[in-house]
Fold ATP synthase CF0 subunit I.
Amino acid sequence: MKNITDSFLCLGYWPSAGSFGFNTDILATNPINLSVVLGVLVFFGKGVYNRKQKILRTIRNSEELREGAIEQLEKAQARLRKVETEADRFRVNGYSEIEREKLNLINSIYTTLEQLENYKNEAIHFEQQRVINQVRQRVLQQALRGALGTLNSCLNNELHLRTVSANIGMFGTMKEKNN
């Protein structure tokens, strides 16, 4: 009778061999192992590369927004210089009003810059969380597929019948104890 671990550990199990063992032929096993590892790397690497491109695109968009904000800041600074020039001309009559306008302009610029920086940070954080969740989901799906494939490949008719019989036997003894 076969050892029950032979059915669960499908490593090196060959029906014609009749027992459990390892293949020590390095020339036969290394290409198989390398192809499996390369296949897994290529499969998961594509998704990571695509996600990386999306993140880089988001960062580039954020940088463009930042450049736009810098341009707005430069325009605002030019307007500020213009206002300061006018302030010198009208210092006697409207110095306090011009100062108030200057402060309002600076405050609105800083508020706009803070909003743009917050938007950029939120966009980056959101994209990172979305990518992390997608990676987690894919890894979980692959793990479940692998586990299901391992179970399906290791579960033969004889083992299945023994497992069902053992469970029925345990259920029968539990039923007798309860009665």
Notes: Residues 30-150 form one domain. The helical segments are 4-8, 26-89, 91-154, 157-178. DSSP finds four helices and no strands in the chain.
